[in-house]
Design brief:
With about 80 residues, this protein is of the alpha+beta class. The protein has a domain of about 50 residues. It contains 2 helices and 3 strands; from the N terminus they run ααβββ. Strands 1-2-3 form a 3-stranded antiparallel beta sheet, with helices on one face. A hairpin with a 4-residue loop joins strand 1 and strand 2. The radius of gyration is 16 Å and the shape is elongated.
């Protein structure tokens, strides 16, 4: 690398690790949750909803694989945990 240049370091972090690295107060947006789940499951999100209660926000994402399989995952917006 030339003097004065910059280097780019890419790290692959799970949603929970990313949020920990970004800071405890960080929250996962719906867009971030969709991208994370599509990469993790190699499928396309075809429906996305937000569920909120007094304590937390959960994104409910319906996925469709190339083979036609459909399933639903839930992502905790506070920590990126996938259920």
């Amino acid at each position: 690398m030339k003097a004065g240049g910059t280097a780019l370091l890419l790290l692959w972090l799970s949603g929970a690790e990313w949020l920990t690295a970004a800071g405890a107060a960080a929250a996962l947006s719906m867009d971030q949750a969709v991208k994370m789940v599509e990469l993790r499951f190699h499928a396309r999100v075809v429906k996305a909803e937000t569920e909120r209660d007094s304590a937390r926000t959960v994104y409910v994402l319906r996925l469709l694989s190339d083979s036609g399989k459909v399933w639903t995952v839930r992502v905790d917006a506070s920590n990126g945990a996938v259920q």
